[in-house]
Amino acid sequence: MRTPAYLAALVACAVSCAAFAQADVTGAVTTQPGKAKAVSVVSANATVESVDPGTRTVVLKMPNGEKHSIVATDEVRNFDQIKPGDHVKAKYMESLAVELKKNGKAVVGRSDTGSMERAAAGHKPGGAAIREVSVTADVVGVDTKKNIVHLKNEHGEIVDLQLHDPEQVKLVKKGDQVQATYTEALAVALEPAAPAKKK
Length: 199
Fold this sequence. Notes:
Layout: H1 5-11, E1 24-32, E2 35-52, E3 57-61, E4 67-71, E5 87-101, E6 109-118, E7 126-143, E8 148-152, E9 158-162, H2 166-171, E10 177-191
Antiparallel strand pairs: 1-2, 2-3, 2-5, 3-4, 5-10, 6-7, 7-8, 7-10, 8-9
């Protein structure tokens, strides 16, 4: 059975945290009958390694030496102020909420929403980008022995969703729906670069 990339990303909640290795990571998982939510917040200081004005790409060097590229859209004001050596405070949050809809009647499909807040003109570059992906799929089968729920998406593809709580699996029946909502937010603010050390 094929697993679409977007649904795999929804189910694997911590995909992007690896880019912020050696940073402060906090997280929590909450569950209740028919619902589950996982949230993680990552904070890290980084240094601007390079800036490409042509593609508006900024390469950040993380505390562990790894590099992470971000592309600033045209909505990001004051891009020309970003210089190699600038210090960046990056905060990244992602959450995954999964909810069982008994005898669901919602339209099967996917929706994407996003927003961006910009720094005021003349201020140091900064802002926050938020993206939310919501997927609704039909339950077409349940394997209680293996704790697997078979889901059918809007393209007719069957996806296996592995659940680790047998009590949650018992609540799911053919004809139900599962709604998964993945939210990610990235906030970046620049600080003045530290003075170079004299040799």
